[in-house]
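If your schedule permits, I should be very grateful for your opinion on a structural question. I have a record of one protein: its chain in single-letter code and its fold written as discrete structure tokens. Kindly check, if you would, that the fold set down in the tokens agrees with what the sequence suggests. I remain grateful for any guidance, and I place the record below:

***
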Amino acid sequence: MPEHARWSIGSRAGLTIGVEHDAGYPSAQVFAPADAAVASFEPMTAPTDALRAGAGLPLATPAAPWTAAFSVEVCQPEGATCSPGQRGQG
């Protein structure tokens, strides 16, 4: 997934919530159970099953720290402006 990839979902009330992968999150998971009106976006620093497979794992050392960042945005219905929400860092 390229940096600055963006995921978003809209609600019946017209709100849109988006997650942008600013840096260091090459993967994501989306959880949206069929029996509930919820969804979850999970930016991931490595592909699914990377710990077992050993591929695609970013490594940090005291001499070479590693950081990642994502942002969350909430947009109001019908053309209102979007407001930045929380920014996460790992």
